[in-house]
Amino acid sequence: MSFETVSVIGLGYIGLPTAAIIASRGINVIGVDVVQSAVDTINAGKIHIVEPDLDIVVRSVVTTGNLRATTTPEPADVFMVAVPTPFIASNDGEHKPDLSYIESAVKRIAPVLEKGNLVVLESTSPVGTTEKMSAWLAEARPDLSFPQDKGSAADIKVAHCPERVLPGYVLQELVSNDRVIGGMSKACSDRAVELYKTFVRGECIVTNARTAEMAKLTENSFRDVNIAFANELSVICDKLKINVWELVKLANRHPRVNILNPGPGVGGHCIAVDPWFIVDSCPEEAKIIKQARLTNDAKPHYVIDQITKAADEFKRPVIACLGLAFKADIDDLRESPALHIVEELVKRNVGEIIAVEPNIGALPAKLAESEIELSSLENALDKANVIVILVDHKEFKSADKTQFATKVVIDTRGIIG
Ligand code: SAJ
Fold first, then answer.
1. Is 416 part of a structural domain of the chain?
2. 403, 262: one domain
3. Ligand 1 atom showing the smallest separation from residue 224 Cα
4. Which of 188, 270, 299, 321 is catalytic?
5. What is the CATH number of the domain that holds 13?
6. Which of 68, 109, 238, 407 is the most buried (most CB within 10 A)?
7. Is 239 a residue of the active site?
8. Measured in angstroms, how far is the CA atom of residue 5 from the centroid of ligand 1?
9. pTM of the model
10. Alpha-carbon dihedral of residues 200, 204, 207, 212, nearest 10 degrees?
11. If you measure from the C-alpha of residue 332 to the centroid of ligand 1, how many angstroms do you get, rounded to a whole number?
């Protein structure tokens, strides 16, 4: 049984590229999003997010008629749910997963669900969410059977297949990465593998839904814990007057050591979020995972203190902040520690701030209101007495380092060496 129509619910950073790639394989794809302007943009063959080459693929599949966007779900063979799963932080330091987007997506697809359909959850989710999603569907459609009751014989197949693509490389990684496929029954997994085989060149590895959920959380927690180790080392090295970058290079000469890079903190929408889902499920047990989150979240404050101390040495501090994005060579400012640091410096009135971000044309609203300047690298290096390197963009790595020699430099990314 092949797939005539696939519906992708949520046309964001994961849903839109997935919809476009599947459509490019000649399958009819109906993209569903609650934001009318996103739907209109896509139907005009354009995109509302930034991802290299995605505009070309979307334009092509919209022109051939293989991809169409709408705000109302329609019947399909498959529903792929790719909606956000943020957390809600409370004042007492708890971080609770917010599954409301999944719940509302489920409520919207339930009325159009038909016997034989496959529902795949792609959103990164706490363990047990796929089962919850299936229970919500069953509640809305008592006329259909679901795998929690009927196993492989159920009318509807349900699986979790977490997305694992790296922003900036989404189109390549969607095709080349291996996929973990966690069906709620064997029949669910088999059908999901069939779906992913239509566009994935990597291996499709089958497990159950709970393990698939945990696999994704584990991948990002692994990275978070290892970055926290590097960030902790950087603070220790400052105290012991050791260059952490040299230290990491030396230690990494050992064949079984591979330390990640310290930085100004961990940004993005995944690594700083997903570990909290494990902590929320097992607060007593997830000790290292929780501490890593706290260590990485503390790093921007450490950098702000360093900058404040450096600025105090000058009567008229002029601080050049190099980079606002959450990582190198992208324009994504969301959940960016660099942006957070600059906003905080402005708020605290630490000195005159000059921001350099070669990947954007204008400052984000909050900074634009203040009097700070978005400047060229040359102008910033010329005017500043304190230089703070917040992102390792290629423009900064290739800059003439003699320009830094006469300034106080705080290098959170180790590009000076
Ligand atoms: N960072 C460091 N030091 C490092 C590596 C990263 O400070 O050595 C910082 C970056 O500057 C950035 C943050 O960590 O602020 C996250 O960047 P990243 O490149 O590690 O990851 P993301 O958030 O862009 O994408 C991650 C990826 N997960 C893994 O590599 C395990 C991606 O494959 C996932 O699909 C994505 O999360 C997701 O959607 O979960």
1. no
2. yes
3. 14
4. 270
5. 3.40.50.720
6. 109
7. no
8. 33
9. 0.95
10. -40
11. 13
Instruction: Note whether 38 and 70 are within 8 A (CB).
Output: no
- Number of folded domains that form the chain: 2
Domain presence at residue 143 = yes
Write the residue with the smallest CA distance to atom 25 of ligand 1. 166
Q: Tell me the C-alpha distance between 341 and 301, whole Å.
A: 8
**417 part of a folded domain:** no
DSSP track, 85-133: --EEE-TTS-EEE--HHHHHHHHHHGGG--TT-EEEE-S---TTHHHHH
Residue 38 domain boundaries: 5-217
Q: Please check whether residues 22 and 121 belong to one and the same domain.
A: yes
pLDDT along the chain (417 residues), means of 10: 93 97 97 98 94 96 98 98 94 92 98 98 98 98 98 98 93 98 98 98 98 98 98 98 98 98 95 97 98 98 98 97 95 93 96 96 89 92 97 96 92 92
Told to judge if 96 belongs to the known catalytic residues of this protein, a careful annotator would answer no
Protein residues whose CB sits closer than 6 Å to any atom of ligand 1: 124, 163-167, 219-220, 223, 227, 260-261, 263, 266-268, 270-271, 326-327
Within-domain flag for 231: no
Catalytic residue chosen out of the listed positions 157, 216, 290, 327: 216
